[in-house]
Amino acid sequence: MRRFYLNPEACNEPRLLLRGDEAHHAARVLRIEVGERVAVLDGAGRILTCVVHSVSKAELLLDPVQTERFPQDPTSISLVCGIPKGGSFDDILDQAIELGVHEVVPLVTDHGNVRLDSKHAREKHHKWQAAAVESIKQCGSPWLPAVAPVSNVGQAAARGSATDLVLLSDLRSGSQEIGQALEACRTRLGRLPASVSIWVGPEGDFSPRELGILQNARAISVTLGPRVLRCATAAVASVALLAHQFRLAVRKG
Questions:
Q1: Is the model's pTM score more than 0.90?
Q2: 170 burial via Cβ count (<10 Å: 0-12, 13-18, 19+)
Q3: Residues 6 or more apart whose Cβ sits within 8 Å of residue 20
Q4: Domain extents for the chain?
Q5: For residues 151-163, b (16+ Cβ closer than 10 Å) or e, as one string?
Q6: Higher pLDDT residue, 117 or 215?
Q7: Which one-letter DSSP state was computed for residue 87?
Q8: Neighbour tally for 104: CB within 10 Å
Q9: Residue partners of 229: CB distance under 8 A and separation at least 6
């Protein structure tokens, strides 16, 4: 079944209306026909099964016939990641959403080679928000993750000051396994953390100044293994490992 996206308010109507790019893609590219069943994601936990009522060049009318509601995960995972050169941040975003992150925070860093003025930062943010929508349509997630505006380390650390557990992907000796850090936090709080952020630096890693900011933010250094990983690999691996450790922890009760 083909998937489309409509914001939650638009999904409260008795008949749903697809316009713009979604309608054009449905009518012109996918050749959706009257009577066909499609799925509409509202990004806020609902998937609506709909029957196509009418199709035109500019819009589709859909009749909802079934609504499924999905609870949010008990722990929210934020990926806070340096922006690598080239277009690989698009891939990081896509794969992180497939793995279940709740938020992605793109970073400009001291050692990173990406520099964005305010105009280009806004353009990138808009592009990545649109890419997040495409990602949930592809993987079928009922929840649309937030894509934060481009930030520096200080800004992102201040935004996440209330996070239960802050993890830093770190090659330095003494770093813990992600599972160890999670269990230590569980012992400290008496429960699993409700929010976790995992920080991944650029190819040149975080600067001493940025590491100082993260230390003040109570970041715990964790290891992804002995090899030096590219930023994109480290970002995806860290989210996958963290999500896996959460599943194990929940099963343990």
A1: yes
A2: buried
A3: none
A4: 2-69, 76-252
A5: bebebbbebbeeb
A6: 215
A7: T
A8: 24
A9: 237
Question: pLDDT for 212-250, tens place per residue?
Answer: 999 999 999 999 988 888 999 999 999 999 999 988 888
Sheet (strand 220-222) strand order = 146-147, 103-107, 76-82, 195-200, 165-169, 220-222
Q: Locate all alpha helices (DSSP H) within 109-226, ordered by sequence.
A: 118-139, 153-159, 178-189, 208-216
Q: Which amino acid is it at 90?
A: D
Measured CA angle at 168 (ends 77, 139), to 5 deg = 30
76-252 fold: Alpha/beta knot (3.40.1280)
Domain 2-69 is found in CATH 1.25.40.10: no
Picking from 117, 112, 100, 215, the residue whose alpha carbon sits closest to that of residue 157 is 215
- Number of neighbours of residue 243 by Cβ within 10 angstroms: 17
CB 196 within 8 A of CB 78: yes
- The predicted-structure confidence for 121-177, as pLDDT tens digits, reads as follows 999 999 999 999 999 999 999 999 999 999 999 999 999 999 999 999 998 878 999
